[in-house]
Design goal:
Elements: H1 3-7, H2 27-40, H3 43-51, H4 55-69, H5 73-80, H6 83-92, H7 96-108, H8 115-124, H9 127-141, H10 145-152, H11 155-165, H12 174-183, H13 192-199, H14 204-218, H15 222-229, H16 232-246, H17 248-255, H18 261-271, H19 276-287, H20 291-295
Helix pairs in contact: 2-3, 2-4, 6-18, 7-8, 7-9, 8-16, 10-11, 11-13, 11-16, 12-14, 13-16, 15-16, 16-17, 17-19
Amino acid sequence: MDTDYFKSHEMSWGTLGTVRPFPNFHPDRDVMEIQSALERKDAVTLVRILTNRNNDQRQEIVKTFKEITQKDLQAGLKKALSGEVETLLLELLMPPLEFEANRLQQAMVGLGTDEETLLEILCTRTGKQLQDIAAAYSYLHKKDLEKELKGETSGDFSKLVLALLHKESVSAPVERDIESLSATLNGKKADVGPWIQILTSRYPEHLDKVLMGLELQCGQVVNEVLEKKFTGDVRLGLKVLAQCIQNPNAYLAKRLTSTKAAIVQGVMVAHSEEDLLCIRAAYLKLTGTSLYTALQ
């Protein structure tokens, strides 16, 4: 893996993560301990080290492991471990852009498409982050992300997905956007065009005001409006997008209630250095149980 490529396309992660840089970091010491743990197939030690280093430090460990042992750390993990813990540690070794690009690829591989994972990434990432993820996708898979999404989706849902991939932040009057969306609801079936155009081309704070104003005008929450007026995948897409505009942490907390390891690990690894503390608080509010207790 060309780590210089990913260093030149870094995302700007936040500071509300649960994983922080490990103080007094010595990659050579970590490598010696990891090498010994791999020989013993000691998953506990491997988890302790790799979950207590941030991604930059893990990349340094991968590099130092190769220099000292002349071996590939990922290959060593595959040999020593199996199952979900193997998958998790391999995911932790991926740079953030590679990880998100890989999640998108996995959501489209094989029979059927995992629309929810596509939507999770497209709705919670900024336009700039999505540009960087698309570049990483092209670099890793030698395929164009937009073309892949086109091939996996159809109709209005495809239009929404592609608009999300190229989302913008254009200024516009809040009242005008409220009226434009409200006007689509007069008939039996709503016109999806203005919804896609507005919800993928404004600042999040602006859209939150627009949806709040629409709810006051309709006397219904947006989720109910979308449920009644739209059908199929585009309804799912608009509902996820609206949730991510109004409360992205609550949406991601809801994703963590899944019993599927791939979904839980995907959200936690992707947000571990960014905003997992906020998602954890939202999970407690949503379920009445701490995420720590639920995972145990």
